[in-house]
Amino acid sequence: MERRKQVLLRIDPAVHDALTHWALDELRSINGQIEMILRRAFVEAGRVPTTIRPLPQRGRPPGEQTQDLGDAW
């Protein structure tokens, strides 16, 4: 599997704060939120790279069994 690229991003502190709140609202990391915004922008602009891989699905991996907590709650 190819490693993900690391980039240095310099943005206005107010933009960073807004991005942080947006990411928290959608239960994502800041990096994940930036990637989602970029992917949406690619789609809107009609410039989706042909080699782009889909994002992994959120949540539990398929087939993973949840532990029965019984009366713990």
Structural summary, described in words:
- By secondary structure, the protein is an all-alpha fold.
- The protein has a domain at about 15-45.
- It has helices at about 15-25, 30-45.
- The longest helix has 16 residues, at about 30-45.
- The chain is extended.
Quick description:
The chain is mainly α.
- Classify the secondary structure makeup into a structural class: mainly alpha
Q: How many strands, which pairing sense, and closed or not: the largest β-sheet?
A: none
- Contiguous low-pLDDT stretches (5 residues minimum) are none
How many strand segments?
Answer: 0
Name the shape in a single word.
extended
The average pLDDT value, as a whole number, equals 85
Counted by DSSP, the helix tally is 2
Order of helices and strands: HH
Ends distance: 41 Å
What is the share of helical residues? 25-40%
GO biological process, one term: regulation of DNA-templated transcription
Protein name: Toxin-antitoxin system HicB family antitoxin
InterPro entries: Arc_rbn_hlx_hlx, Ribbon_hlx_hlx
Region (Disordered): 51-73
Provide keyphrases for this structure:
2 helices, 0% strand, Ribbon_hlx_hlx, 73 residues, Toxin-antitoxin system HicB family antitoxin, extended, mainly alpha, single chain, Arc_rbn_hlx_hlx
Produce the secondary structure layout.
Blueprint: H1 13-25, H2 30-45
Helix pairs in contact: 1-2
Protein name: Toxin-antitoxin system HicB family antitoxin
Biased composition (Polar residues): 64-73
Organism: Acidithrix ferrooxidans
